[in-house]
Write a structure and sequence with these properties.
It contains 9 helices and 14 strands. With about 350 residues, it is an alpha/beta fold. The strands form 3 sheets. Strands 5-2-1-6-7-8 form a 6-stranded parallel sheet, sandwiched between helices. Helix 2 links the parallel strand 6 and strand 7 (about 90-95). Helix 1 crosses helix 9 (about 315-335) and helix 4 (about 130-145) crosses helix 9.
């Protein structure tokens, strides 16, 4: 397999550092690695495969002699630098929301719609973390029995906001346990020992932008423009790992046993489902792992043939860095990247 000249944009951030870890752990064929970030982070040193590399400030020249650029520096940086990189012949896999819903930009989860990645114009979008793990479970079921309607409630870790939110949860927890009042600064309310049904901004519809992302991204990934989907996204005081309660209505009745059997064979999915011994996925056990976990699979008592399930995954890995690297790996395997 050809070795690639790789750049990571946003290398000092949480997902950027996870990119470095995933590339190392999966023995990705890296010929050279450029670590890029803002001027504030330039000069910092990070390790990759026993080599200390210096972080450089991102500039248009950063993408000269680069084959693959993994972006996780926010939508504004992506909108500015991704087209520059693409024009230089670089394949950009972008973790921000900048291009996800743009026509002509593939929005890809490798286990679900890898074929879409072939028709790219230099930029491939990585979906929202909560969307990725949901479609990992929906897609195998949809292949067998078409899905008509989905209702999802998410329980999303603070790592989805970044390092500042992890520090806020840590600090606030100590403050509360010390019997003192909390002054929130990352979120509009205290997150320690609390739940916030507000992720991203509120839209005129009453839904948040995070909820809107789950709806429109799922339709695009699964090629189901008319899929009925409603989401409620909640921030919870968990460090890593998003959890989702998902209710699915199919065209034909499906039993819990059938759904369980299908998901057991699905790539990238691991079923943990034995209520007799309290076996089900939790964010604590999912953190640091690559699979999307499904449990609590049961028949919906409110709709004949419907299924309700519980889905958990590490939002920093499968929800971000790992998914992007998997896209590049599969493109290399298929001969779509690197000549």
């Amino acid at each position: 397999m050809k070795e690639l000249r790789v750049a990571i944009v946003g290398a000092t951030g949480m997902v950027g550092q996870e990119f470095i870890k995933v590339l190392t752990q999966r023995d990705f064929p890296v010929k050279s690695l450029s670590l890029l970030a803002s001027d504030r982070s330039a000069g910092k040193k990070l390790w990759f495969r026993e080599q200390e590399l210096e972080v450089q400030e991102t500039s248009p020249d950063s993408f000269n002699d680069i084959d693959l650029a993994l972006f996780s520096a926010g939508a504004e940086i992506s909108r500015h630098f991704s087209p520059i990189a693409a024009r230089k012949g670089v394949l950009v896999i972008d973790n921000s929301a900048a291009f996800r819903m743009e026509s002509g930009v593939p929005l890809v989860v490798p286990e679900v719609n890898m074929e879409d990645a072939r028709n790219n114009k230099g930029i491939i979008a990585n979906p929202n973390c909560s969307t990725i793990q949901m479609v990992m479970a929906l897609a195998p079921l949809h292949k067998v029995n078409p899905i008509k309607r989905v209702v999802v409630s998410t329980y999303q870790a603070v790592s989805g906001t970044g390092t500042a939110a992890i520090e806020a949860l840590t600090g606030q927890s100590r403050t509360v346990l010390d019997g003192q009042a909390v002054t929130p600064h990352v979120y509009p309310h205290q997150i320690a020992f609390n739940l916030l049904p507000e992720i991203d901004t509120f839209l005129d519809t009453g839904y948040t932008k995070e909820e809107w992302k789950m709806m429109v991204e799922t339709r695009k990934i699964m090629h189901l423009p008319n899929l009925l989907l409603s989401a409620t996204c909640v921030r919870v005081p968990v460090f890593i790992g998003h959890s989702e309660a998902v209710n699915i209505e199919f065209e034909r009745p499906m039993s819990a046993d059938d759904a369980r059997a299908i998901l057991t064979k699905a790539p990238g999915v691991r079923v943990l489902d034995d209520p007799t011994v309290s076996l089900y996925p939790t964010p604590w056990m999912a953190a640091g792992t690559d699979e999307t976990y499904v449990g609590r699979i049961r028949e919906d008592t409110s709709h004949v043939g419907g299924i309700t399930m519980w889905i958990v995954a590490d939002n920093v890995r499968k929800g971000a860095a790992l998914n992007a690297v998997q896209i590049a790996e599969e493109m290399l395997r298929r001969g779509w990247l690197g000549g």
